[in-house]
Every structure is written in C-alpha cells, then in structure tokens.
Specification:
This protein has helices at residues 2-17, 23-94, 100-135. By secondary structure, it is mainly α.
C-alpha cells in the first residue's frame, strides 16, 4: 500500500510541476517587455522635450508682447504730441505765423503717426490673444 501512495504522490507532484514552454517564448516575451519599456521612456523624454520647447516659445512670445506694448505706447505718445502740435499750428496758420505747406506737412505726419499707432495697437492685441491661447490662460489683469 505504501508503494501505491508513493506513486500517486509522485504522479501528482510531476503533474503539478511539469510545464513546457519553448525557450523562444520566454525570450520573446522578455524582449517585448523591454521594447515596450524603452518606448515608454522615449515617449516620456519626447514629452519633456515638448514641454521645454513650449516654455521657450511662450517666453519668446511674452517678450514680443512686451516689445509691442512699448512700441504701441511710444506711437501713442508721438501721436498725442503731434495732435497738440497740429492744434498749435492751426492757430499759427490763422495768425499767419506759418505757411499752409508747413501746416499740411504737420497734418500729414500726424495722420501717419495715428496710423502707425493703430497698427501697433492691433499687433499688440493680436500678440496678447496669441499668448493667451498658447499659454492656455487668460491674461486679463484688470481689477473689477
């Protein structure tokens, strides 16, 4: 009876442990895992590079916005100064202190300055909106 029990135990033991896998299946599975891990690492690296590129673009666009704001403010001051000069020139023309040609040149210069200011203002507003979209935030800093 002990021989039968021992054979049954051996049969169960061998039946439970016996597992046949081709060696290629193990190495292939290991290679796939490594390949997927490498792809994941590459994607993470590329994502980090993209973040850095976006940061750089946002910085450049921000400084372009600051330049356009300064440009707009400069054109605005020039336009205001020329408008005052035109008002004074109108009085001088009426009093005969300047010629009509001089007055015409001043009015033309004031008109061009106003046009340059409007272009600078539109460029600033477009850049402002572009930066908002690029950064994904609202830049409105006015207090209510």
């Amino acid at each position: 009876s002990t021989g039968i029990i021992s054979r049954n135990e051996q049969a169960r033991y061998y039946g439970g442990v016996s597992l046949k896998l081709p060696l290629s299946a193990i190495s292939s599975s290991s290679s796939k895992v490594k390949a997927k891990r490498l792809l994941k690492e590459q994607a993470a690296y590329e994502m980090q590079q993209l973040r850095e590129d976006i940061k750089q673009i946002i910085i450049e666009e921000y400084f372009q916005l600051k330049y356009l704001q300064e440009s707009m403010n400069t054109y605005n001051r020039i336009t205001q100064t020329l408008e005052i000069s035109v008002l004074q020139a109108e009085k001088d023309l009426t009093n005969g202190h300047i010629e009509f040609d001089e007055f015409g040149i001043l009015v033309s210069t004031a008109g061009k300055s106003k046009n340059d200011y409007l272009k600078a203002k539109n460029s600033f507003q477009a850049q402002y909106k572009k930066l908002e979209i690029l950064a994904g935030i609202t830049l409105n800093t006015q207090k209510k």
